[in-house]
Amino acid sequence: MELVLSIAIGVMTTCGVWLILRPRTYQVIVGLSLLSYAVNLFIFGVGGVKSNRPPVLEGGVLASTLSDPVPQALVLTAIVIGFATTALFLVVLLAARGLTGNDHVDGRNEKP
Amino acid sequence: MPFLGSLASAFILNTTSRQLPVFLAGVVALSSVGLSALAYPYVTDGNVLRFHAEWLPQFGLDFSLRMDGFAWIFSMLVTSIGFLVVLYARYYMGDDDPIPRFFSFLLAFMGAMLGILISGNIILLSIFWELTSIFSFLLISYWHSSAAARDGARMALTVTGIGGFCLLIGMLLLGHIVGSYDLDTILASGDAIRNHPLYLPTLVFILLGALTKSAQFPFHFWLPNAMAAPTPVSAFLHSATMVKAGVFLLVRFWPVLSGTYEWFFLVGLAGMLTLLLGAFFAMFQRDLKGLLAYSTISHLGLITTLLSLGSPLSTVAAIFHMLNHATFKASLFMAAGIIDHETGTRDMQKLSGLFRFLPATATLAMVASAAMAGVPLLNGFLSKEMFFAEAVETHADSVLDRILPYVATLAGAFSVTYSLRFIHTVFFGPPPVDLPKPHPHEPPRWMRFPIEILVVVCLIVGIVPALSIGPFLETAVASVLGARTPDYSLSIWHGFNVPLIMSLVALVGGTLLYMALRRYLATSEDGPPYFRRLRGQRIFERVLVTVSWRWARLAESRLGTRNLQPQLRWIVAIGFTAGLLPLYLAGFERRPIVFSQIDPAFVLIWMIGMALAIGAAVYAKYHRLAALVMLGGVGLVVCLTFVWLSAPDLAITQLLVEIVTTVLILLGLRWLPKRNPDLGDVMTLRSRFRRFRDLLLAVACGVGMTVVAFTVMTIPVPDAIATYFLENAYAQGGGRNVVNVILVDFRGFDTLGEIVVLGIVGLTVYALLRRFRPAPDSMEMPEQQQIQNRFDEEQPERSPGDMVRDYLLVPSVLMQWMFPVILMFAVYLFIRGHDMPGGGFSAGLTLSIAFLLQYLAGGTRWAEDRIRILPLRWMGAGILTATATGAGAWLLGYPFLTSHFRYLELPLIGKIPAATALLFDLGVFALVVGSTVLILVALAHQSIRINRLRAIEAARREEA
């Protein structure tokens, strides 16, 4: 399980980093989303990977065998904040597009 | 005390009265004099007066003050000259000058200066040192409308500021060597310091501080430029006090730092060069104050030279000369100020024959400058005599030491020359012509009074030294030298010996030199011959320009970029290195790769997930919609993973966020430009290389993340805080869903901050979109709507717009029907949140999706006709509820956000938990709804706004 998850994190990081280095704003926004998936999964994975042990207390289940709730709480806030930043970035992107007339990250199509 | 006075006069900054600030400053200064004088009995016989308060004990920094004899005599000097200067300034300052500001700065400076003198901790000393630099900057630039004042002030600040910084370094080194910042401890450990390997750097840094402050060569150039200050400031700062701070420091650390060859060489070289060059430059100044400034530099050089010799007797001479110089130079500056005040010029080629207009001032100035020249029966003579005697003695056998007597005599002759020049050109000769103020006359009685006092002191000390200054000097010297205090005699007549001959040679030589130069000086241009072109100021400015402008520009053009891509590339590269480096340095623990326990289904979904991620990366440029769909796919896979790996809360939130984000980006896609792979975009070699480099970086990051993630996940999780949360969630938080309890209870404050962020983002988005103007090529109707409208026009029985309206009719009916169901679901998620997966975040997102679907189903107009959502009210209510819940705990005497819980029995539904955390969660819920809806609606409204924009555009086109 861990192996699959870490390879997946690696692939998503690769795609995310590649995309945020691209010149078009839309590529950057997709790249950031991919990166945030990767990072969220990574933080989540720090608490260890357990199946069928959600951190919900029920009678008869030993608390210490449950999966770690702290990374989950962190990731939950991270998901919501990630949504907020994506929204903000999208709107900045649109405003920049409206102001500069193109969708290059620097606001101008470079002609070296 | 002066600080309080400064503050007080800052408060009366706007007063129109001219008397009040003067009175205040005078009282403050005078009572400081009194206080200092009262302290005298405590500091005689080598006793020390101490005051101690803890400041930052953990760093070994205490606010400690100590006053010994040396500090006392200096304090007396500072406060009494300060008082005289206040009195003088009362008459000197013009009617338009803001008096309170002046006195406020002056008193603050006095306070800082006293701070230097009596601080018992070297770091504290350093701080006061910087304060004097700052206040001197403010005082020099007091007439801030003049460019010369601004430049002079800036230069003084730069030079002394750099010096102060060096001093701080030196002090820290010193503290490091001794192990304490306490002055007493340091003064007691001289041998340890001199034998320490760090002695030389410490010495150099402290000397840099002292020499810049005392305007020693090669840092002397700021002082003449600082003469743009009002004359009282020059008299106070640049003759009596601030420039003395440097030599004061040298004396202060003389017992611990001096006596080595490095000390003699560095200090002596600087001192002798300053002594000679200062005197030489002073002869050729045209500006009265310039002459005095250079002579000050020269006299400070004399003191520095004396200190460099390292013998106790020369230190006595140095301290004595400091006092003498302060008295006669302050009086000369004041005299120069009177001349300037009465005639309107300080140019010595214009001034002449003023004796007949200003007889009293002239007499006073003559006595003072005679003291400066070292004429017998005046105080300057005594200390100069001591200097000559010390110069003849051999202390450290080197060329420097052997030439000292000749240098001393030459400099003495120069000082006679410039003193003569000052007196002769200004007061004698024919009456002046074309003065800016034609009728000079004696200044008011009390303006002359300070000069009179100082000159009388010169005379008294000069005639009966042993009776007047003797005991005080003894106290001061004893406190510095301790047991090494030598026998010295302050009498005027020592017999016909070598120093006396040197004095005579200097007097006669100086007079002859003046006769020889007289004709030349009367017509020459400003500045000394040969050195005229070599201006320290010019060099200084060039260096400044080079460092702060050229190099900065160079660095910016070489290292900086305004493009985002290189910046991001650097961030990623540095981030990668920062991750790699510690692993590389500390060694990396390899984890065995295990293939067991791998569920094929899990592998399969991640195969799909990875393929989708790569697909999204590839298609993001030309096929945005496809990339978005794939991105959503990745999100779903992540969501599945959360379900699989026992994180139901995350799965729910991820799923909902995924929906909202996708809709959001879909709404945004419409405004992006069309991009076609067939058009343009020729791949150059350079862009190929760039892509390759980026790919390499990305793969490196990916591999790194894989390795790190795998290692972290396979390392056994240490018993951390998780256990605490798991065990106490129910007992203390009253909830079974530990994640939710953490969010709303244990870490409630974080969540509060987070929802505030969410709210701010919502508002920002709204604000940004209010002024949104689409680019011209997005103004047209979307292609699909155009086709639909065209179809309507072609069919005779349809009217335009029908197709758009009826588009997706069945799904939209379904969506409308789903509204109450989703609403119910949101409530359900919310209520069960504390015990089961769910909670405020997911409930809020669900509710906003319900609203969103209505917008999608019926269009913006339709939806807003039926439901009025006021996102701002939702947001406000949310934040208020959450904060009020938290603050409610205060009322019951608990810390912020303490929660309380119990179970409520509701009819039909049964037992539900009713923790106050639930109320907090309600706030979270409301805010999430408000913020999300605000963002989405703001974006959705653009398609309504664009119709209006289009109409405006069309109207404009018709007009044209």
UniProtKB/TrEMBL annotation, chain A:
Gene Ontology cellular-component annotations: plasma membrane
Principal subcellular localisation of the protein: membrane
Gene3D superfamilies cross-referenced by the UniProt entry: 1.10.287.3510
Coiled-coil regions, chain positions: none
Membrane topology field: Multi-pass membrane protein
Alphabetic keyword roster: Cell membrane, Membrane, Transmembrane, Transmembrane helix
Localization of this protein: Cell membrane
Family matches, as InterPro entries: CPA3_antiporter_subunitC, NUOK/Mnh_C1-like
Pfam family membership, one: Oxidored_q2
Recorded family membership: Belongs to the CPA3 antiporters (TC 2.A.63) subunit C family.
Protein name: Na+/H+ antiporter subunit C
UniProt organism field: Rhizobium straminoryzae
